[in-house]
Amino acid sequence: MTTTAEPPTTAEPPPAAVACTGLDHAFGDTKAVDGLDLTVHAGEVFGLLGPNGAGKTTAIRCVTTLLPVPPGRVRVFGHDAGDERMAVRRLLGYVPQQLSADAHLTGRENVSLFARVFDVPRRERAERVSQALAAVDLADAADRLAGTYSGGMVRRLELAQALVSAPRLLILDEPTIGLDPIARTSVWEHITAVREATGMTVLVTTHYMDEADRYCDRVALMHRGRVRALGTPAALRRGLGKRRGAAATDPPPTLEDVFRDVAGSGLDDSSGGFSDVRSTRRTAQRVG
Ligand SMILES: Nc1ncnc2c1ncn2[C@@H]1O[C@H](COP(=O)(O)OP(=O)(O)OP(=O)(O)O)[C@@H](O)[C@H]1O
Ligand SMILES: [Mg+2]
Question: Across the chain, what does the average pLDDT equal?
Fold first, then answer.
């Protein structure tokens, strides 16, 4: 009797947008990222939260391949950030924590530069640049120097720069720091609209817990280089409420309470809790 191999009954699950496994990164004696395990599912908005110095930016720079990682530690849609750097970069749009727009170029010139760097085909470039600017409501200001933009416009310009290559994964490092509440909402509305239109995955860091609660499908709370809590904002809030055994009359815990609970004494009191003085100053410099 001959037997034939059974066909596979289940399809392979699609690869995660980001999968970090035991990721380490040190600067000299400082272990910025210390055995980080993190999975971002395709299509979700994932918030990476944590106090100043937790290692969020370092972890993100490992995912973007801007910091070198050994093979096997970071995969982006199945591609290894250690030995397939170009393949990973082609999938990404990245808005860094530091200013990435040039004040001496117009909005359109800034976005065109990114279109060239990210290999948008020459024939499509002008159209794609205009579309990216329009997607963040900068069509009317596109031909003004970026140095004349407000802080909110600069952040939206950086979003257009990151979106022009039609990334599958958009990585935003504190996209709304230092912006007024209306400008913050505007940045999120633009992210949400592009995401709904394209299905892209978003990995974002923020110190604004209200934003994380409202816009993120899941969040990870990072502290001293590792993830200390993970889940939907609602599940994390509920979990803290249960651990505290709160009475029904107590106000329900907020995501900020969860943050304080996880970061505990690790918070630097001089940083004023969640207000990131350092980054706010940076935004002030960029705008001024
Ligand atoms: N280029 C660098 N050289 C030396 N040390 C660094 C460098 N970048 C980061 N670090 C250190 O690594 C640790 C993690 O920093 P990182 O910028 O990743 O934190 P973060 O969570 O992004 O903080 P923030 O919320 O303030 O942006 C900190 O102790 C920081 O001082
Ligand atoms: Mg940072």
Answer: 88
Of residues 192, 214, 204, the one with CA closest to residue 48: 204
Domain coverage including residue 165: 18-266
Pocket test for ligand 1, best of 56, 97, 171 (most atoms within 8 A of CB): 56
Give pLDDT tens digits for 32-74. 999 999 999 999 999 999 999 999 999 999 999 999 999 999 9
pLDDT digits (tens, 9 = 90+) for 178-190: 888 998 999 899 9
CB of 56 closer than 6 angstroms to any ligand 1 atom: yes
Q: Is 218 helix (H, G, I), strand (E, B) or coil?
A: strand
Ligand 2 centroid distance, CA of 123 (Å): 36
Asked, for residue 242, whether it belongs to a domain, the answer is yes
Classify residue 5: in a domain, yes or no: no
**What are the tens digits of pLDDT across the range 112-164?**
999 998 888 999 999 999 999 998 999 999 999 999 999 999 999 999 999 99
Which CATH number belongs to the domain containing residue 250 in this structure?
3.40.50.300
Distance (Å) of CA 127 to CA 114, 155, 158: 14, 21, 18
Domain assignment present for 177: yes
Question: Using alpha carbons only, how large is the chain's radius of gyration in Å?
Answer: 20
Residue 9 located in a structural domain: no
Ligand 1 pocket, residue 32 CB under 6 Å: yes
Query: Ligand 1 within 6 A of 206 CB?
Result: no
